[in-house]
UniProtKB/TrEMBL annotation:
Keywords: Amino-acid biosynthesis, Histidine biosynthesis, Hydrolase. It catalyses: L-histidinol phosphate + H2O = L-histidinol + phosphate. The lineage of its organism: Eukaryota, Fungi, Dikarya, Ascomycota, Pezizomycotina. InterPro entries: Histidinol_P_phosphatase_HisJ, PHP_dom, Pol/histidinol_Pase-like. This is Histidinol-phosphatase. Pathway: Amino-acid biosynthesis; L-histidine biosynthesis; L-histidine from 5-phospho-alpha-D-ribose 1-diphosphate: step 8/9. Belongs to the PHP hydrolase family. HisK subfamily. It comes from Cryomyces antarcticus.
Amino acid sequence: MEVFAMTEHMPRDEEDLYPEELEINTTAAGLLQLFDDYYAEAVRLRRAYASQIKLLVGFETDWIRPSSLKLTEDLLNKYQFDLFVGSIHHVRTVPIDFDQPKYEEARRVTGGTDEKLFEAYFDEQYGMLQALKPPVVGHFDLIRLKSDDPERSFKQWAG
């Protein structure tokens, strides 16, 4: 390898903490501190190994709700990144890749079918792409992960 990119998920709002984070009393401020620590270590590693490998430092977005835009902009203004990855892990603020019950909840809130959920996912993906214009898009088809038929063709649905 000549180039390696390091990315960490961006901090999230308090209302978007995952159940296991709440169990150990994680806070939004704690996620921000963890991210600050990640950035400092990533930059240290980039300097330490500069003669051996090009290390790119970046982050992965969590596009969840309107406040995700400000959280992303704040990170881009605070640090100098080589790249960032635009990603969606939630639909209508419900995680789609956490576990099957959360996926089913997301399906319910979008109309009760995978077709409606996929439409909502790609609509939110499009909104993220327009707002952030990320240089890299992460797991564009993550919505497949917990679906009833992960190998299905998107072409079967008009929407």
